[in-house]
Design a protein that fits this description.
It is a single chain. The protein has helices at residues 18-21, 25-38, 57-62, 77-95, 112-120, 136-141, 148-151, 168-185, 194-204, 218-229, 263-276, 284-294, 308-317, and strands at 10-17, 39-49, 66-69, 101-105, 124-129, 144-147, 191-193, 232-237, 240-245, 281-282, 321-325, 331-335. It is α/β, with parallel strands linked by helices. The protein folds into three domains: 10-151, 5'-nuclease (Rossmann fold); 168-251, Arc Repressor Mutant, subunit A; 255-335, Arc Repressor Mutant, subunit A (Orthogonal Bundle), CATH 1.10.10. A six-stranded parallel β-sheet has the order 3-2-1-4-5-6. The protein has a three-stranded antiparallel β-sheet with strand order 7-9-8. 28% of the residues are buried.
């Protein structure tokens, strides 16, 4: 009799420095989605809360986050919030044995000692921050680090050939298919158990039900999505249903190529997604990575440039960005 694999599920505590991440609703949802794909969120706190973050209330309450308000007095307010975050994180690490992973949404180097202490206690530390605010020291100290721009890059869909407009049912299925694809892209395995995928889906969408999509079982829903969109690979392995992604090359013909005539439209769309997500500056390497994700065959020479930095200079001439250098002598582009 085959023994089923025991799946390990991380238990997270999430601490968000709002002043550092400049959170908006889509950005915060993307952060929570990134963490929920990895495990359960048992505890969450946000720091530096003021009236300007009122639009976050619904997201914070529905995810049972505790809010630490920002009371403006004197010049040391920001440092006080940093200290409170450190105290709370250490208290959780020492008192709550269930929590084995921490997510710190900030790039401030002041949190490096905290990261070091958490790691010395055997805790996993995931760091998330805007590229313009991320310290190299903090990035290297974390077990894993993600730039906020990359966490929220799902706002820009991979281009496909134009299709007829979808009805509401097809649109709902398309949205579900994109979510499942994102979950599978985050895995370090080629395929996972369907039951594991459904467990992750329920953490992301607690109200999920297969019957809402006209299917009696999750397996039938997966097969329906795989047939309609072609992104999922579903098969049986000794009575276990396994799910993975199809080979991206199978859909390569559906992805248009960037040329001298259409590259500006693609770059404008990605820059707009950053701005809509609340970002004022991004690292050019993140922009290039997102462009390559959408257009795998992207090459600067194909659109008339020798280097990616030349593309940035052209965008600056077009009045879309301003090229800057930060204190660490790292190139950033300011979005206009």
């Amino acid at each position: 009799m085959k023994r089923k694999k025991v799946l390990f599920l991380s238990k997270f505590a999430v601490f968000v420095d709002l002043e550092n991440c400049g959170a908006k609703v889509p950005t915060l949802k993307s952060i929570l989605e990134k963490v929920k794909i990895r495990g359960d969120i048992l505890l969450g706190k946000v720091y530096g809360y003021t009236d300007k973050f009122d639009d976050l209330k619904e997201v914070l309450l529905s995810n049972t986050f505790t809010v630490v308000p920002s009371l403006r007095y004197g010049i040391s307010q920001k440092n006080n919030a940093d200290i409170q975050l450190v105290i709370d994180a250490l208290q959780v690490a020492y008192e709550n044995e269930l929590i084995d992973s921490f997510c710190i949404v900030s790039g401030d180097s002041d949190y490096v000692p905290l990261v070091g202490r958490l790691k010395s206690m055997g805790k996993f530390v995931l760091g998330i921050s805007r590229s313009e605010a991320a310290s190299n020291i903090f990035i290297n100290a974390c077990n894993e680090f993600q730039f906020l721009e990359s966490v929220g890059k799902r706002n820009v869909e991979k281009p496909r050939k134009q299709k007829a407009s979808m009805n509401n049912e097809e649109a709902d299925e398309s949205e579900l298919n994109k979510l499942l694809t994102t979950v599978l892209e985050e895995q370090d395995r080629d395929e996972i158990y369907a039951s594991e995928l459904k467990g992750t889906l329920l953490r992301l969408r607690p109200d999920f039900n297969e019957k809402a999509y006209g299917c009696a079982t999750f397996y039938k829903l997966l097969m329906k999505l795989a047939t309609r969109f072609g992104d999922l690979s579903v098969h049986n392995d000794n009575f276990d249903v396994m799910v993975g992604l199809t080979n991206s090359s199978d859909n390569s013909e559906a992805i248009p190529q960037l040329t001298r005539d259409n590259w500006r439209e693609a770059f404008n769309a990605q820059l707009k997604a950053y701005k809509d997500g609340g970002f004022e500056r991004v690292n050019p390497s993140i922009l290039k990575a997102d462009i390559i994700t959408a257009y795998p065959d992207f090459n600067e020479r194909a659109i008339g440039f020798k280097r990616f930095s030349d593309v940035m200079k052209q965008l600056e001439k077009d009045g879309l960005v301003v090229v800057e250098m930060d204190e660490q002598n790292t190139m950033l582009i300011k979005l206009l």
